Amino acid sequence: MNNFNLDSIIRPNVKAMKAYSSARDEFQEINDDFIFLDANENPFNNGLNRYPDPLQRNVKSILSKLKNVAAEQILLGNGSDEVLDLIFRAFCEPNQDNVIAISPSYGMYHVLANLNAVEYRKSLLSEADFQPKIEDVFSKVDDHTKMIFLCSPNNPTGEIIKKESILKIVNRFNGLVIIDEAYIDFATEPSWIGEIKNYPNVIVTQTLSKAVGLAGIRLGILYASQEIVDVLNKIKPPYNINQLTQLKAIEILNNYRKVIETTNTILQQKQALENALTEISFVEKIYPSDANFILIKVDNANKRYNQLVEKGIVIRNRNNDDLCKNCLRITVGTEVENQKLIQTFKTI
Ligand SMILES: *Cc1c(COP(=O)(O)O)cnc(C)c1O
Question: What protein family does this chain belong to (predicted)?
């Protein structure tokens, strides 16, 4: 087992901070009988003249039921980007600490490391199956390694990271393991949320931007021990989730059956797209996908990418990513969009 000790990895300045207490923290009950003259808001009701709930309790109570986790173990951010940035700021000392991430993976981890002056160490995935190479990961760990980022299902490769691999890392690493599950709703494997109680060094992040279909409202979600969430709550901007976002999230999450329906439709479409891609002459490889996108290897990614753009279809060229030479990433669209893509592939 590891020697994880949350207290020892919190930045000293963060540990010394007391949470900023906003007007809405000090008096939480929004009660129509009260007169609120505490936050310098405009008193004329237009539906949005009041500050939003800083702890987003209505959103969290729905998520708590959906995901079977205590509301106190949930932190919401302005997209996953803010959630991930808060983790860097809470635990990584600039110009001193480092983090490790698998590669290729989601580009924001590197951007946020740079922004926070934290060294970013890449551990290449195995070329054979896009799984992490455990010994390579640990060869990069030193006393200043605070976090390891694992994205599962991984973007851009599409595959889930095997539970055994994640366990090996979680059990041995003394810092935090961040499991980014932006695409977990498309996978057949279960989320790691259910394991948080067993592994206090695990942080799971999810988002409403993909399967739930709300990329426009910017809502990222973190699940972790209450101790970790408390640290992050202390440093987050008080009103980081705006009222419109909270209301829309509640509306859509309250009708989760619809989300599951569209997810299933996307999965059916993915299957159809995979089948159709096998018949395209220049497609050399279709990687297995547990997400809502498909990574393919083609004869010449730059050429095929540009040909598609000329026909008005934009996919993602991953040619410059590690292990992704001549690879293109295709998001699964509607049936009509996917058919258009295949027709176009056949003519170029
Ligand atoms: C799309 C994506 C996200 C979502 O980020 P948001 O800021 O919540 O929109 C997070 N992680 C990965 C790996 C992604 O691909």
Answer: Belongs to the class-II pyridoxal-phosphate-dependent aminotransferase family. Histidinol-phosphate aminotransferase subfamily.
Tokens of 143: 């006393």
Span from the CA of 209 to the centroid of ligand 1 (angstroms): 7
Pocket test for ligand 1, best of 76, 108, 160, 223 (most atoms within 8 A of CB): 108
Q: Which domains does the chain have, with CATH numbers?
A: 6-27+54-254 (3.40.640.10), 257-346 (3.90.1150.10)
pLDDT tens track for 233-281: 999 999 999 999 999 999 999 999 999 999 999 999 999 999 999 999 9
Which tens digits make up the pLDDT trace of 3-31?
999 999 999 999 999 887 887 777 766 66
Q: Count CB atoms within 10 A of the CB of residue 106.
A: 18
The percent helix, strand, coil of the chain (3-state, each to 5) is 40, 15, 45
| CA–CA dist 8, 281 (Å, integer) | 56
Q: Which of 102, 159, 160, 209 to mutate to test the pocket of ligand 1 (most atoms within 8 A of CB)?
A: 209
Q: Whole-angstrom Cα distance, residue 102 to residue 105? A: 6
DSSP state of 195: G
